[in-house]
Every structure is written in C-alpha cells, then in structure tokens.
Amino acid sequence: MTAIALTPMDLAGRAPRVRADLDPNDISALFVSNLTNVRWLSGFTGSNGWLVLSGDQLVLVTDGRYAEQAVDQLAAGNVDATVLVGTTRAQMINHVRTLLDGHPSIGFEGGHLTYADHATLSGEIGGTWVPTAGVIETHRRTKDAGEIDRMRYAAAIADDALAATLTLLRDEPTESGFRDQLEWEMRRCGADGPSFDTIVAAGANAALPHHHPDSTRIVEGMTVVVDFGALYDGYHSDMTRTFTIGDPTAQQQEVYEVVLAAQRAGVAAVAPGARGQALDAVCRDHIASAGWGEWFNHGTGHGVGLQIHESPWLTLSYDDTLAVSDVVTVEPGVYRKDFGGVRIEDMVLVTTDGCQSLTTTPKDSPCLPSPPTN
User: Fold this and answer.
1) Residues 32, 37, 43, 48, CA torsion sign
2) Using the 8-state DSSP alphabet, how is residue 248 labeled?
3) Measured distance CA(180)–CA(161) in Å, rounded
4) What is the phi/psi pair of residue 59, to 5°?
5) pTM (2 decimals)?
6) In whole angstroms, how far apart are CA 43 and each of 73, 133, 155, 373?
C-alpha cells in the first residue's frame, strides 16, 4: 500500500484544552498516570511515564530508558513541556513531589491509578488527592484531522489486507492459519500490527463473539466471522465481515440479510446528537422483529481511537450523545450454537450531516468474491 502524507496532529493544543476545564479551586494540579492519556497529551509512547499538568506547566516524568525519546517526541509534536528523568522509581516520585509541592488539591485518574500506587504516592507526596473521571477522555473522544487521517489510513490497510487474503478461505485453511496470513498482510501493507487479537470464527465457533482462532479447519458449508483491525501510529481500525464457504443455506442467507439490514439502519441513524441507547435500539429492534433478538447478545458499538474500545458507547447501558468527529463502530450480530454466527461491522466518522464509513470492504453478500481470472 502506498504511503500517504497525513495531516499533523494538534498535540500542542491538547494540554491547554484540558487545563481550561480544570477549576483551580477544586483541582490545582492534575496527575496523569494512564499511558494512553499521557500519549494523547504529550506524544510520548514509552511504557513508563507520568504527567503533571498545572496552571502554568506540563511536565513529563519518566525513567532513564526514555530520556532521549521523551525529549524528541515532545519536540516533534511542538508540545510545550519539560521532561524530568529519574533513574529509580523513588527518584521519579521525588520529581513529582517537587512539582506538586504547595498544591492544595491534586487531581488523579480514579479509574486508572491503582489503590497501591495511590497509597504510595499520596503518602509520600502529601496534599489532598481528588479522584477525577473522564477529564482527558472527554477531549480524546473527539478526533482532530490528524487523528482521523491515521484512522482512515488504518482502515484502508485493513480493507486492502482482507482483499488480498480472502481467496485463501477457499483452500480450507485453519482459523489460526488464516489469522496469521491476514495479520502478515496488514503489516506488509504498512500496519504497525493488528489492533487487537484478530477473531476468525468458523462454523460452531462463530457463535462465540470473541472466539480465539484455533486449529478448526474452514470448510464448505461454514459461516466465517472475521473481526480485525490495523494499528497505525497508535490509532486503531475495526471491521467485521461474515462469509459463507460455498453458497449460503436458506438460513444463513436469512440471518445475514437480517443482520445486514440492522447494521445499515444503525449506520444510517448515526449523526450528531444521536444517543447511544437509541442507536443500539435501532439495530436491536430490527433483529428482534425478525425473530432473532434473543441471540443478539452484545452492544451495538463503541468509540475507537488510541484504544480499540473507548467512549462513546452505543449500548443499552450507556446513553452517550454523539458529536461531530467522534469515530464509532456499528456492529450488530446474531449468534446461536446450533447455527454459528453473523456479525457485520463498519467504523464510521460522525460528520455534520450524518456519518462517513471509514471501512469500504463490500458487505452486500456473504458469498466470497469470485477468484481473479488470469
């Protein structure tokens, strides 16, 4: 796949946006420990780092392995931040203590900092530690042009890789063998790797939404669910297609058409202001009206970005409201042990007048495309 010029990401503008949301009377400094949030705020991709964000500074604290990498990555993103390096964890904590000294209230990520780390840090650093939720994630979910470019490119890699490997399903591969070839092809097309553990589920295994590929051989008469994505520059793509090996049976065709109609209705309903529960209901009600509602046993979709599953959520449990530049999946499915399963998924970008699909692999039919003619 030909590399393309991608829009730069607005790394420099992220910390000021988060800082503007912090009330200094409630939180005078924010301690960021979640590595995904650290990356989003600073561009730093190492495996050990904390950020301290206050009214007048952004400081990354990391260990000696990443001293040069951290400086280079922050400079590349034009991020106005300081890097402090500690050879030991104790030295890193001492850096944080100095940065937080005198702050009356320190916000921390309540959903990410472990109890043990909180006890250690708050005990050694002192001050009043205030749990926060979603302070950074609220900003992360709305993608800038650079992020959208990367996700679009990751989706294109996945489309190309699937097109290049689909004919192998005619050769009776094992699930794991097809997975390996698909992931190899994604890397050949430019991916840094798969977005998550690729799902290839054939026959009865397709009744398990998150089946792990095994030695099951894919043979004529089976349905095959392929759920996968490409990772590029930290950003994920996500797509599912279902195929039949040979002509579909009447039941396979019926279920496929029901799921496809539900999925298309869900995609058509994605728009700014649409609510997660309502979008879930669009797909769920369609499948239920066809008599298959009992076997749709997961949510309709989720946000995608630096994480493969992030807000907003399109499920019965959450009532998130979509906004322009959110990226979400729409992925209804039907699963039954004596039948197998069908799932169809696209990753879509919310636009001002609806949405745009970032995945382009055809889904009109479960039949494998005809082999190329020489």
Assistant:
1) positive
2) P
3) 12
4) -130, 130
5) 0.95
6) 6, 21, 22, 47
